[in-house]
Amino acid sequence: MAFRWIAVTLLTFVTFSRCQDIPTLYYPSRPDIKAPLLHVMQYDAERVAPGYIFLTPNTPGHTNYSAGPHIYNHQGQLIWSGEHKLDPGFQAFNPQVVRLNDSDHFVFTEFRGHRGGGPSDMDSHSTIYNSSYDQVLRVSTNGTWRGYRLTEDLHEFHVVDGGKSALITSYVTFPENITYDRCQGAQTIFTKTGVFSEVLLDGSNDQIFQFSLSDHFDPRDSYVCPGDRLCGTGKDDVGAFDAFHINSIDKDVYGDYLVSLRHFHMIIKVAGMGSPSGMAPGEVIWRLGGRQNEFVMDSEVEGIPYLNFSFQHHARWYPEGEGFTFWDNANNEINPPSSTYSSGKTVRINEIDRIATLTQMYPSPYRLLDSSQGSMQTLPNGNRLLGMGSQPYLYESLADGTPVFHAHFGFLPHQSYRTYKFEWSATPPESQMGLFSYAKYCNASMVMYASWNGATDVAGWKYYTSPEQEGQFTLVAEKDYDNNFETVAVGSFNLWTYAEAYNAAGALLGRSKTVSTFVPITDLAENCSALICPHGTIYSHGNSTDCPAPPPREDLEPSNRLNKFMSEDFKLLEQERPKGYTKS
């Protein structure tokens, strides 16, 4: 069989709808995936840390994109869409790689409840997967506080002690009559406390440590008032007042905990079991920030006279025994901002003299101010990865603050609670492979789109075609992986196709299903391009008689497939595609 193949540069298909929707990527081989577009504005390949970017993009009130965790490479191309792993009705948070039983695993939190912080659905949990994306553990907490059943909150899931346990946040509503003099005498009868638990990762979910903020702090020291946006009025149990807002926990090598209280503008250290401080487990060793601040606030950063922060997130010990990092939102859209921009910050702690020194700041390249969420991760090479939470931006900086990567996914109100980067190697099941074969006419060149959702070790593809489904297949094209989710090749027309994925050593990783070639009917073909047909609805051999098309495949649902995922959006793309959103 004679064939020819043509090298092709594929333009990623981007769809736009309403202005508040996230621009999404369309893949002919996987039309069920509509991944948010990650637009890379800066990428210093020699100075970024290796790894993939982990996001949980979401848009409050709008769902034009695939929900769930997503993994991207530095080029902004999708590696994995995890929508199929997200239970219906839940939202995804905290996507990260964790070390468990001496091997890397992937975990994310599935949360259903009040987004601002509050008692969650009893089914909220975090799920851990192996490198084949098979579930190995479902984690929650089975603890109680004052007789109230604890449920997992969205704000923290952090694996510690070499994978033996995890730190989890919970919000609990309880009755308490309080008058807030700082809030014009506002009165509440229900309060939310923040609780963190350390639970075993042995399948039991047994709790080995617990700490509650309301056992140690007066809610009247909060910087928010009953009735403030997302804070609750405190008039009933559903709208209980969120005075504390716990949002991160970390544990150091000595067993002590670092805890962030957003609504207190405070970060605290809590004694763990056998704490070197000599204090009893659960006692507060020190308080930094807020109305009970115990430290002198100092700074080594030029132009910044002292350490200052408010409404912070994601505090992490770094380096061990010396200080910590955190994301300073500096804003909540209610109180006056404590800075004109949000930033990541590093702090050195002198516990003996009670001096806290700001040692470095990491503002975004645009000096943006966000109002909620956010993260700061120290990478293995010392770089910092910053996620802006309620602003759809992420960036990576050297330790000295020099930016080396900058990207965004859509525009306000698009957001991701946290942003992470990890090295990750995965080989998903072959069911996650996708293949779509298309020709405008049955005597035209055939375009073959291959993908493998979640695979990280694919180095190249081989494409095989045949005039018969059960006939002899011939290799017609080979194509190296080019950092795109989909790899495309072009060859002479044939009726049936399958593709094989290979690693860098040439070993076979997996084979796709055999698919029939899609050819639009004659009336539609004139509106189709050589690469794709935006309005294809049924299979047809057109006017040709020497290469009839096979019958429609049921799994493609031809009456809905392309119309559902491209339709008028594709027309808009062809006419008005912004140059900045074109990837090659």
Your description of this structure?
This protein has 584 residues and is mainly beta. The protein is 3% helix and 39% strand. It has three helices and 41 strands. The chain has a five-stranded antiparallel sheet, with no helix packed on it. Strands 15, 16, 17, 18 and 19 form a five-stranded mixed sheet that branches. The longest helix is centred in the C-terminal third of the chain and has 10 residues, at 567-576. The protein is elongated.
Q: What is the rounded distance between the termini?
A: 31 Å
CATH topology value of the largest domain: Neuraminidase
How many helix segments? Answer: 3
Biggest sheet: strands side by side, in what order?
A: 5-32-31-30-29
Indicate the low-confidence ranges by residue numbers. Answer: 1-11, 535-546, 549-584
Strand count, sense and barrel status of the largest sheet are: 5 strands, antiparallel
| CATH architecture call of the largest domain | 6 Propeller
Number of domains: 2
Radius of gyration, CA atoms, in whole angstroms:
27 Å
